[in-house]
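User: I'll paste a sequence; please echo it back and then give the predicted structure.

Assistant: Echoing your sequence first, then the prediction.
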Amino acid sequence: MSFKFTEENLKRIEQSRKKYPTALAAVMDTVYIAQEQNGYISTEVMAEIADVLGIDKVNVLSVVTFYTMYHTKLMGKYHVQVCTNVSCMLRGGYEIWEQVKNKFGLDNMQTSADGKFSVEEVECMGACGFAPMIAVNEDFYENLTKEKVEEILDSLK
């Protein structure tokens, strides 16, 4: 299976590229655009990103595997990330992690059979002063209780 950027996304990448002094500096934007188009970042997608930017494939791989916002496999329609790093852990992050896993019957990096939900335990989402927190896709929820988490999860249709 080969991957090619759409013409529209190539234009977006070129606009992004203009913001940075080097092509390498535009890699995060380009990976995000690729993930929007493809749903996840495969080996073929990484090769196309490297080709379009004229950078080494290992530079793309290092970004994709370092940041939790990029996925190397297809995630659910609702991708629920639960922070269990120190601040969140001290304020109930592990209990929330167990609650989310039990709610969907999934373990870390698993996707439901219907493709609706996926769950991921993450190290830090940068909201230490507002712990504990979860993210559902691009939406962040902070200062959570188990009751608030249940409301959020129940609202996902």
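The helical segments are 7-18, 27-38, 43-53, 57-66, 86-90, 93-104, 146-154. The first strand starts at residue 78 and ends at 83.
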